[in-house]
Amino acid sequence: MTEPDLQDAYALETPDDAKRLYANWAETYDRSFAEDMDFVLPARVAQAFVGAGGGGPVLDFGCGTGLVGQHLADLGIAPVDGADLSPEMLRVAERKEVYRKLIEGNVLDGLTIPTGTYAGVVSSGTFTHGHVGPDAIDELLRLAAPGAQFALSINGAHFEAEDFAAKFTTLAGKITDLTLPELRFYGDRAIGDHKDDIGKIALFRKA
After folding, report:
1. pLDDT given for residue 21 in this prediction
2. Most buried by CB count within 10 Å: which residue of 124, 141, 148, 173?
3. Domains, in order of start, for the chain
């Protein structure tokens, strides 16, 4: 079987497609993608969250193999829960021993988490092509307590194609302090067609 890659991830169309892809990619993801592509985004999301004053308890949405959780732990943020569609990715995340608990589920179906549970929500690499669109933010806001800090990375092309700007406009009154700093997702060692991909980190608080 050919090793999955970023092009395969960007070609996803349904949650079932995602589950199949990440079932095959989970065990090698950290090495064959994160290391080889110099994937700096998880560290930058964690740093942006802490820099904005974020703290625990935190939900790491689309936690994958636990890269953001690892960086949050290094920065002294706890407790952190992770949620992801892929049980195989969650098993890899569990080995990192940085999560209080891990939750399998599709955010668009609603997660089995009580309203107002979290003081912070982070996400790295989930709001991108073939993955999750802006409507998922509604469920994440439900899970957050008033004043909760958000740090959500959004792929630049996906931001435009799915009109995240319009979504944030509709959330006026529900969120405060919105900023959208732009950044590169990959470091200087990245290669391939997507090595210069850029996006935004949506930083805001729940009103």
Report:
1. 55
2. 124
3. 6-206 (3.40.50.150)
Interval 10-26: pLDDT, tens: 544 455 555 555 555 55
Mean of pLDDT over the chain: 84
Predicted structure pTM score: 0.85
Distances in Å between the Cα of 30 and the Cα atoms of 96, 176, 188 are 12, 34, 17
Hey, what amino acid is at 164? F
**Residue 174 pLDDT more than 80?**
yes
